[in-house]
Write a structure and sequence with these properties.
Pfam families: AMP-binding, AMP-binding_C. The structure is a single chain. The chain is of the alpha/beta class. About 25% of the residues lie in helices and about 25% in strands. It contains 14 helices and 26 strands. A nine-stranded mixed β-sheet has the order 2-1-9-8-10-11-12-13-14. Strands 15-16-20-21 form a four-stranded antiparallel β-sheet. It has a three-stranded parallel β-sheet with strand order 4-3-5, with helices on one face. Helix 1 crosses helix 3.
């Protein structure tokens, strides 16, 4: 460590010394409770927990597996890991036991804390506060990802656990000043990298209000009651919030800006949120857990480049290449490659039997996403190569079909997959969660609606009505598993 670096552990202690009584973290429980916690409490309790974890053998460089819901206990465990120089690895706790077991085999944590350990974490409040040496973890965190294939992998951050204001700076500041401190709502589970990264924003001085579990109505209530100034959400979360009855009359005036990520927003949803809060307050961004690079654009920019996920940001460079590794012209779809000098990802590595991102000789890397650049250099994300459906020899991108179908008045949620078909090779199949289970849309309804928005070969050839789309707590779906369950 150089003399200018400060460990995250030391940063936490310094904040606790300077602002011991500042309420920095609020937890919104499933029962509607909303306890708040101060820097002094977080520092003291995480030190007590660190001492208890050290007794269990956790030390510098070890992995601490965290199968915990969004909770104070999760935050304390992350802080405790940093204080011991260990690597916190939040784990998807909403997995079946067999799949969770596979992920734990990949992580091989020195200590694993799950739902049954919440009580144990609480008992450490009776312990003394140990004298902990200032130390730095070799990786600030690990993030679990199963990708589209379902193969377990853990992405270890390419930076050590030192404090860097870069990780706490609002993305919107690349366009305009952002009032600080921000009051940020965290609606997503913290096993997802975007939600987990809000802990770095908190360490930079912003306040967090964290939902134990996302619920659209509760999220809007939280914005109104606590005057939230910012939140990051997936398109599915934003869709559910916008679909709430009476949303147009709710008080969202405290929102200085919102950030949407994880997948491109359907155009109709962007326009709905633009009416709710103003296009200039919307930011859409594209990145990945590997930290290969970043693109973003504001809502008013998007209006001139509809469907885009932005231009390169913070030193990112973008290339779109064909199968031979040649650069494609604007408008031509190929594989997206990123390179960034500002986002330190060169030290990132995988745990698990997965290949690293493919790379060019000059250091551009890809995770398999497909897209194109327009004439103005804005990136348009089409889909993941692994999700693409080849039907009758033509390429169909599920995200495009989903974006068209979500506007059907009888469709609450939709996922599109390709199923084996003797005539087409793969047929476009839509799983639909209806607005009203007693009055679902028919295949004829869906096809007629889609034909006005899509080329004929992209229109679903079959429809399946389901009670609910099987999304994770982060609102993601595993298309591979859906295809496998339907015969491949």
């Amino acid at each position: 460590m150089t003399e200018v670096e400060v460990s995250l552990a030391r940063r936490i202690r310094e904040l606790a010394a300077a602002r011991p009584d500042e309420a920095i973290y609020r937890h919104i429980g499933l029962d509607g409770s909303a306890p708040t916690y101060t820097w002094g409490w977080l520092d003291r309790r995480s030190s007590q927990l660190a001492g208890a974890l050290a007794v269990r053998g956790l030390a510098r460089g070890d992995f601490l597996g965290l199968g915990l819901r969004n909770s104070p206990q999760l935050v304390l465990s992350v802080f405790a890991a940093w204080k011991l120089g260990a690597v916190p690895v939040p784990v998807r706790w909403d997995l079946p036991d067999w799949e969770l077991g596979r992920i734990r085999e990949v992580i091989q944590p020195r200590v694993y804390l799950g739902a049954d350990d919440v009580g144990w974490v609480d008992t450490t409040a009776s312990l003394g506060i140990p004298d902990l040496a200032d130390t730095v973890s070799p990786h600030r965190h690990g993030i679990c990802s199963s990708g589209s294939t379902g193969t377990p992998k853990v992405i270890l951050a390419g930076t050590a656990s030192t404090y860097n204001p870069h990780y706490g700076s609002p993305l919107m500041e690349n366009w305009r000043p952002v009032p600080r401190p921000q009051h940020i709502m965290v609606p997503a589970p913290m096993y997802h990298v975007t939600a987990f990264s809000m802990l770095y924003v908190m360490i930079a001085g912003d306040r967090l209000t964290v939902l134990e579990k996302f619920d659209a109505a509760r999220a809007v209530d939280v914005i109104e009651r606590y005057r939230v100034s910012h939140f990051i959400a997936t398109p599915t979360m934003l869709q559910r919030m916008a679909d709430l009855s009476g949303i147009e009359s709710r008080d969202l005036s405290s929102l200085d800006w919102i950030n949407q990520g994880a997948a491109p927003m359907p155009p109709s949803l962007v326009h709905r949120w633009a009416k709710l809060i103003g296009a200039e307050r919307i930011l859409m961004s594209y990145g990945m857990s590997e930290g290969l690079g970043l693109t973003a654009l504001t809502g008013d920019e998007w209006m001139a480049h509809q469907g885009s996920v932005g231009r390169p940001l913070r030193g990112t460079q973008v290339r779109v290449l064909d199968a031979a590794g040649e650069d494609l012209s604007p408008g031509e779809i190929g594989e997206i490659y990123l390179r960034s000098g500002a986002l330190p990802s060169s030290g990132a590595r995988y745990l698990g039997a997965v290949p690293p991102p493919r790379a060019t000789a000059d250091g551009f890397k890809t995770v398999g996403d497909l897209g194109y650049l327009d004439e103005d250099g804005y990136l348009h994300l089409v889909d993941r190569r692994v999700d693409m459906i080849i039907s009758g020899g033509a390429n169909v991108f599920p995200a495009e079909v989903e974006s068209a179908l979500i506007d059907h008045p009888k469709v609450a949620d939709v996922v599109v997959i390709g199923l084996r078909d003797p005539e087409w090779g793969r047929r476009v199949h839509a799983l639909i969660e209806p607005v009203d289970q007693a009055d679902p849309p028919t295949l004829t309804d869906i096809r007629a609606f889609a034909k006005h928005r899509l080329a004929a070969y992209k229109v679903p050839k079959s429809v399946e009505i389901v009670d609910a789309i099987p999304r994770s707590e982060a609102t993601k779906v595993n298309r591979g598993r859906l295809v496998e369950a339907r015969g491949g």
